[in-house]
TrEMBL record:
Residues 165-297 form the BioF2-like acetyltransferase domain. Gene3D superfamilies: 3.40.630.30. This is FemAB-related protein (PEP-CTERM system-associated). It holds the Pfam family Acetyltransf_6. InterPro entries: Acyl_CoA_acyltransferase, BioF2-like_GNAT_dom, PEP-CTERM_FemAB-rel, PG_Glycine_Bridge_Synth. It comes from Sphingomonas yantingensis. Transmembrane segments: none annotated.
Amino acid sequence: MNAPFVPPAATIREADLSDPRDSAAIEAFLADASDSTPFHLPGWSRAIERGCGQRPHYLIAERGGIVAGVLPLIDIRSRVVGRSLTSVGFGVEGGILADDDITHTALEAAGWALAQRLGTPTFELRGGRVSGESWHLDDTTYLDFARDLTADHESELLAIPKKQRAEVRKAFANDLTVTVGRGDRDLAAHYRVYSESVRNLGTPIFPRALFRAILADMGERADILTVWQGERPIGSTLSLYWKGTMYPFWGGGVREARALRGNERMFYAYACHALDRGCRRLDLGRSKAGTGPAAFKKNFGYLPRPLGYWRRTLDGAAPRTVNPLDPKYARKTELWKKLPLPVANLIGPWIARGLG
């Protein structure tokens, strides 16, 4: 009887994300990896470093000079929530991807060893699986919402549940226009809308440099969709594209958007634009369970999928929970909502750059 084939051990090293050869080899691996996301791409890690100043450590496993697995890590430092080594920081998912179990286990061990060397209190993997009993799983905080697209714009409208579809039709009567682009006007409109949106939710805005870096480092895999009332942007989203899926990621609307059904118009525009780009699937990203954004996505016919985040700590204690919905953050959130927008935009980026 023949013994089972055991692949030779892979060599693990930290990739040089400034080296086009390393980036190309990683992208070739990701193109064939079934669970890869845009957050695994080298461009994502480079943009986070340039936009937020957080250092990436992109681990790759190689066998015979060919990439056999990846673990993109970002060393996130924050005076507000502490420090963590996260795969992948500022993204929804981005855990270990590997050709086989041996390589997967080796990358997990290498990531943990790196956390120990750096003295990072928390090691986090967003998605995937882990080995051993030292991990803490959180699969109740976040939900992801995604579905396959239909054939055309009209069928996408009909795919929206009847009650929500009526709200979209009301938006059509409000003389709203939709643009998609990657230029300075698009960036300015997005920042204007998104900063007001997150301030109204009691959340600091990310640095303006982050959004510019994402467009630069992700290239044609990113763009900005904006809903306008005349010359005023009322809703805007920066989206990512990867392997036939559109990922609307950083988006929101101003207060007036609610009465104008601007958010409904924007969500329908996602599907239409995704189809126009040749996408087959739309992933609306994560929302916290039990929140209004989660309910809004569900009303559009997107079913929730729990996201599993694995955390391991250097001291073995239960990881610190950081959730704006926690009652202990309620007063700070309410105070932030009352800040004048220029003040929130001035101090917010210094806080948010570490909220990965």
